Amino acid sequence: MQALSPTDSAFLWMETRNQPMHVAGLNIFTPPPDSGTDFVAKLLADWAKHMKAIAPFNLRPVLRMGLWYWEEDEEFELDYHLRHLALPQPGRIRELLAMVSRLHGNLLDRNRPLWETYVIEGLPGGRFATYSKIHHALVDGVSGARMAANAMSDDASGRKAPVWDMPFPHHPASSGKRTAPTLMQQIGNVAKAGRDILPGIGSGLWDIARASYVEGAAALPFQAPPTPFNVEISGSRRFASQSYSLARLKHIGEATGATVNDVTLAICAGALREYLQAQNKLPKKPLVAMVPVSLHGETSAGGNQVSLLLASLATDIADPLKRLKRIVESTSQAKQRLTKMPRLQKMAHGITSISPFGAGMVTGTAQNHPLFNLVISNVPGPKKALYLNGARLDEVYPVSIPTHYLALNITISGYGDRLGFGYIACRRSVPALQRMLDYTHNAILALEAAVGIHHSPPPAAKKAATRRVAPAKATAAPVAKKSVKKKRAAAPAD
């Protein structure tokens, strides 16, 4: 057995029926041109040969003396974890997103390894999708994306074992069987960790203490206004997604001196402002986003290794350029504090600065006095085109975690020259989530217009726009045009 870290254990302790703590990815593929109608059946038959799983995919959580450990599942059944589904007619992206919305609201079985993979066929043109979810106690967004990419090839003729049978040596749960540490060993480990992280804890506590009287560009705990997102949630989910040209966002960044990450925050801010305005619920104070910061190195691939920063989204500012400028100021100040800290201190600072959120969840005060309003993550992805047994990976969409008092989560994932925006929310608390796709597109156009970039979509995209869909993929590469058109026509998941 191997003990879980305090961070990984927290995701197990936090989980409830209404608050599943798994992350997921939705991938859309196009089979090879010469493949028949049985491509998916052949893929599944090939995967079925890999009946054994290796760590962390063969590990289940067990509770011993109040501590969580990973234990090998001696009765591992691939048939339980690998599932084959087909979309109902007419098999549009609408039906796919609705299916993902339902699947994402279901808890993983703790008596088994905490992951499931669904192969979903029935999309037009023989395309198919995979939806894979894994518990956040096992991976964070970065390590999950690396695992998925590791099981695909950058060569159309390449073949790799499925992800559950791929060695992942840098994952903390992948080093084989271990005996549980003794009490003295645990005390020693805690003492050493305490010495390493104490300065980070102090910094986080200082941020909390000064939040009530410090004003400025930097976002601090408890400066966020109450919003419709800061409520208790149900177990049902609604998912919406869309991808955009990375080049478009880079052009905005080059024109303004902002990073792509800051541009994506500004786009989300513009979309959130329009969404709340449409409901007459836009607060006078700016929304605050919690932004995970990856601490993974190039070879550090598994586990939860993140710090956190708070960023003002400047939703109180109507002008898109002024809003972007304020966001840049906010994130720059937050990053300056983090860059001065060693890795463990960064983790401690982030966790400590948001620690009151747990108390707010228990007491219910997080609704009227939110620490922050939502989570916005940016997960780097592969730069090259990837293939699954010859099928081209066309689209990558992350599916993350809403929680009580954080009913909306936005995660952005890069793949090649595209950025996929994944919106996951409580179905009851965030109505008409699909409108965020239109508002996101509007936010991009507003920033482009503000910096003098004139984007003229081709005629096909203009036609699609008249059907009240987001024409954001007008700049998509030719290989993705077919999928984009379908997606626009059926973007809503509800």
In DSSP terms, counting alpha (H) and pi (I) runs of 4 or more, how many helices? 14
Strand content: 15-25%
Total domains:
2
Number of strands: 15
Share of helix, binned? 25-40%
Class of secondary structure makeup: alpha+beta
Please name the CATH topology of the largest domain. Answer: Chloramphenicol Acetyltransferase
> What's the CATH H-level homologous superfamily of the largest domain?
Nonribosomal peptide synthetase, condensation domain
Rg result? 22 Å
Q: Provide the succession of SSEs.
A: EHEHEEHEHEEHHEHHEEHHHEEEEEHHH
Biggest sheet details: 6 strands, mixed
Form type? globular
For the residues shown, what is the average pLDDT? Answer: 81
Strand ordering within the main sheet: 5-6-7-2-13-12
Distance between the termini: 43 Å
Oligomeric state of shown chains: single chain
User: What is the correct CATH architecture of the largest domain?
Assistant: 2-Layer Sandwich
Low-pLDDT regions: 175-180, 182-214, 295-301, 458-494
Query: For this structure, what is the CATH class of the largest domain?
Result: Alpha Beta
